[in-house]
């Protein structure tokens, strides 16, 4: 294993095409622009057989919100093994190196969109949330706006990137959001420079959208107030003379679903993502918790890949903040025992009852399950795909 450098990019691109299919010349150019700055940061790992590249894995720098507070998250992407080298453990080697590198880069957790589950599950990632692509009627959105156009919108340019990130932080914090992330500023700049993406900004929200054939594809729409949500959605919906539908990544309880005049059947396609704690204590300390729920309990965790996460942890949660402190095995207490995948899914809001019946949690009591389920309660989603 070694870090990839600019000299490796042709081999990386060849491997990538063999894994995910061809890229257009425009996409190759955009890919090079996005990849080049992250190479010196040790965010692109290569597995070699002699001098021949056999596998890759990339770690994107993200912030991910959990109950309204951001933690540092490594988004794993571009996991590829050359076709002729598959099935001999290269994928596993890549994942073990990726976990270690996430820790070195200061990411307290990691997430990824799996094309296949077992490779990641064997290494501690577990199914946690989804990207919900919801198809809405364009005309139903058009009519959400007010005639006086109360909210001022302006076009976004690449220089607005810091403002977009500030808005995400404010909206996700106030909404106590779980799961959505803010992407690396450098990536956002490259995307916003694409002439086929249209972006509009209000004081407390923004939208980025594009045409998809005769329909509209909303990449991101966040709004901190009803007035801004109405203004942004109706701007998108104003395409309804041409577009019949608008497809957008939404929160599970996205406010637009309560603004629409009609709602009976939701058309949702879910792309699942998996999540792994990398530094359990920092991740527990960094996340938000609902005010009014508390925990004071010990859990046991087994993390074969990162033994620093293994052992007994005292979880203390109160007044919206939490800590995890390593402790000795408590005498005589009924301690719940989690696999690393199980505790990662718990962190992401998967209820202990489900984890127990899936074999990711044993021991403990139904009362401790209730407490853990309440403090980590979340309906995690993501807007971005990577
Ligand atoms: C997925 C991929 C990275 C796995 O690499 P690999 O070197 O063959 O993986 P390993 O030999 O280390 O196998 C690890 C585990 O994954 C499983 N696995 C590998 N390829 C798989 C596939 N296509 N479908 C389901 N499981 C698969 C293996 O069976 C093994 O699990 P097991 O121990 O329970 O048998 C490789 O097949 C690849 O590059 N595929 C195309 C691109 C892709 O899908 N990348 C993942 C994007 S999220």
What would a concise description of this structure say?
With 386 residues, the chain is α+β, with helices and mostly antiparallel strands.
Structure, described:
Helices cover 30% and strands 32% of the residues. With 386 residues, it is of the alpha+beta class. The chain has 3 domains: 2-124, Aminopeptidase; 132-270, Aminopeptidase; 279-375, 2-Layer Sandwich (Nonspecific Lipid-transfer Protein, Chain A), CATH 3.30.1050.10. Strands 1, 2, 3, 4, 5, 6, 7, 8, 9, 10, 11, 12 and 13 form a 13-stranded mixed sheet that branches. Helix 8 (226-237) links the parallel strand 11 (215-223) and strand 12. Coenzyme A binds at residues 19, 79-81, 86-92, 114-116, 118-119, 122.
């Amino acid at each position: 294993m070694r870090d990839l450098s600019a000299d490796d990019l042709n081999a990386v691109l060849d491997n990538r095409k063999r894994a995910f299919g061809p890229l257009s010349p425009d996409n190759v150019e955009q890919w090079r622009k996005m990849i080049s700055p992250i190479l010196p940061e040790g965010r692109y790992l290569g597995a070699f057989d002699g001098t021949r590249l056999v596998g890759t894995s990339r770690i994107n720098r993200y912030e991910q919100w959990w109950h309204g507070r951001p933690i540092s998250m490594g988004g794993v992407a571009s996991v590829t093994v050359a076709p002729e080298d598959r099935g001999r453990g290269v994928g596993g080697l890549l994942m073990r190196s990726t976990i270690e590198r996430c820790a070195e880069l200061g990411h307290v957790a990691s997430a990824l969109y799996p094309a296949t589950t077992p490779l990641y599950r064997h290494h501690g990632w577990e199914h946690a949330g989804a990207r919900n692509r919801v198809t809405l009627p364009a005309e139903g959105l058009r009519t959400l706006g007010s005639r006086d156009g109360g909210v001022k919108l302006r076009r976004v340019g690449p220089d607005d990137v810091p403002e977009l990130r500030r808005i995400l932080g404010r909206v996700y914090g106030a909404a106590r959001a779980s799961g959505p992330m803010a992407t690396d500023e450098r990536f956002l700049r490259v995307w916003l420079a694409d002439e086929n993406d249209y972006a509009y900004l209000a004081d407390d929200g923004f939208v980025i959208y594009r045409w998809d054939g005769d329909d509209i594809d909303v990449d991101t729409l966040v709004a901190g107030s009803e007035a801004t949500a109405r203004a942004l959605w109706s701007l998108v919906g104003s395409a309804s003379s041409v577009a019949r539908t608008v497809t957008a990544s939404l929160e599970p309880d996205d406010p637009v679903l309560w603004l629409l005049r009609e709602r009976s059947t939701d058309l949702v396609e879910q792309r699942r993502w998996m999540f792994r704690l990398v530094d359990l204590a920092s991740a527990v300390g960094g996340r938000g918790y609902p005010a009014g729920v508390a925990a004071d309990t010990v859990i046991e965790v087994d993390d074969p890949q990162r033994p620093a996460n293994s052992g007994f942890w005292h979880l203390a949660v109160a007044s919206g903040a939490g800590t995890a402190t390593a402790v000795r095995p408590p005498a005589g207490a009924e301690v719940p025992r989690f696999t690393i995948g199980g505790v990662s899914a718990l962190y992401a809001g998967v209820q202990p009852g489900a984890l127990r019946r899936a074999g990711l949690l044993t021991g403990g009591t139904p009362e401790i399950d209730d407490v853990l389920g309440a403090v980590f309660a979340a309906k995690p989603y993501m807007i971005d795909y990577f």
